[in-house]
Amino acid sequence: MSHSHKNQSYISTKLTSFCRYFLPVVNPDGYEYSHTVERMWRKNRAWHGGKCVGVDLNRNFSYGWGESGSSDVPTHNFFRGPAPFSEPESTAMKVYITLHSYGQIILFPFAYKSQLCQDYVRLLEGATVMSKAIHKCNGNIYKVGISRDVMYSAAGTSNDWSYGEARIPYCYLIELRSRKHKFKLPKEEIEETGNEILNCVKALMEFVDANDVTINIWKEEFSTMDVMVEGPRAAQVASMMQEREIPFAVAVGDVAVLIDKEQGSSFIRMTMDWERYHRLDVIYEFMENLQKEFPFLCALLKISNGNPNNTGIWMDGAIHPREWVSISVVTFIADRIVRTFNDQPASVTNKDWYVLLNGCSNIMTVSLSIRYIVPVLNPDGYEYTHTTDRMWRKNRSRYGECVAMDGVKRAKKARRTIPEKVILKSGVDFKVFLSFHSYGEVIIFPWGYTSDACPDYVELLEGGTAMAKAIFQESGHTYKVGSTKDLMYYAAGTSIDWSYGVANVPFSYMIELRGKKHRFLLPSEEIVPTARETMNGVLSLLDFVDSRCRGTQSK
């Protein structure tokens, strides 16, 4: 950087407006030890308990010190030391971007628990900018996220301390190359690794300079495994958790009460609105009436009548029938697009909207490219959640004595699904695939079946970040962004892995809607706010996709 600043004119003034402090070797004794004795040594060379056991300096910071992801055992690789800042090396550091290896990952707070910092969206934007800069430099893909999602829990890290205690607004831990060579990166790759990090730091500095911020205090937000227990067994399960010292809290005291409240008026015949959850007949009638009310925009067509030169966008809900709010969101978007069509931006009005009415071959279209909206992808399962089992997840297919298949994980049956019939056989060039679910408040993209980054990880990250930012601007709700495996769990045979990997739909996302507090039983008064923030996110994604397509065409 100093050579470039002296001799080359291309260095941005954004870089020269910052004071930088470089500490090349934070742990000099440990570094020497890794050269002379043990190549895989991780800690410093501190003496504790009369022995040179060493302390993991990235578990020795005061913020979150002693939480999960560190150890009080001196011989452990993650030994946190006898007290926060017990080591002189960690005490010396206050302001920096910290570089580690390996993994090709850009991390931001928090690492010591699943809480999202209040500045998650802004930190995500900065990390996305860095990942994009690296990819433009040499095609390398760096994943982005919080440590608990893309790596593991880690308490007392420098990154968490610099954000949570020192109040530094932009704090990143960058895991460098390489996944292939692990810690033993060939020396031939040193310069190229340095160049890609220089480019990403330059991009971050420009982003920071263009986005002046004030620091916000984080708020508590827990996210753990959710388990529903039958009432008679609740005390037994609680006792078992206590015996094993597993922390837990009761999120919903009586699920049956919430279900009864939710379904109190379920047998009253209603017209469509977004103040309550509706049965299938109301939803289908709404779609048909929308077409009748706006015949100049909407028309019922067979799927085979689609124009093969148009581009397509797919939207569906209720592949898991207990996720009622997903249907409300899809119908809300359909209604608003039609009723405010002339007021929408060009990214909406230059496209047709195709709506699948009943899982058969009728679709509704609105104007010039093509979008498919499927309000209820699993109608039989959806009705079953209204009449029999509110928590039903699958469809109602019968396989021998067993009933049902998980709709989102049936890639081997793709030839028999509606998405396959429409997307692969209609001749339409689909650009976006959106599948709405609940709950979790996350925007996820491929892959789910493997931890590897998909080839278009950076572009999908950019699109997801655009959605998350738009949602946050609309309501203040924070949606995490990342791959299915990173943010949730391994999931093989998902619809978005299929749409991206088989159907070649470049922007494939699954959006887990609200809410973390009520789980699947989101109160009806939250339907409209959820739908509005989601629509804002979708419109932002369409702007991004259109700009990306124009950029590709101009090259």
UniProtKB/TrEMBL annotation:
Q: SUPFAM superfamilies per the record?
A: Protease propeptides/inhibitors (SSF54897), Zn-dependent exopeptidases (SSF53187)
Q: Does the keyword Hydrolase apply?
A: yes
State any GO CC term: extracellular space
**PROSITE patterns membership:** PEPTIDASE_M14
Q: Name one GO molecular function term.
A: zinc ion binding
Q: What positions does UniProt annotate as the active site of this protein?
A: 512
Task: Give every Peptidase M14 domain span.
Answer: 1-545
Keywords in alphabetical order: Carboxypeptidase, Hydrolase, Metal-binding, Metalloprotease, Protease, Signal, Zinc
Q: Which GO terms describe its biological process?
A: proteolysis
User: Which InterPro entries has this protein been placed in?
Assistant: M14A_act_pep, Peptidase_M14
From which domain of life does this come?
Answer: Eukaryota
Where are the annotated coiled coils located? none
Cofactor (UniProt): Zn(2+)
- Tagged with keyword Signal: yes
**Similarity comment text for this entry:** Belongs to the peptidase M14 family.
How is this protein named in the record? Peptidase M14 domain-containing protein
Q: Which organism is it from?
A: Leptidea sinapis
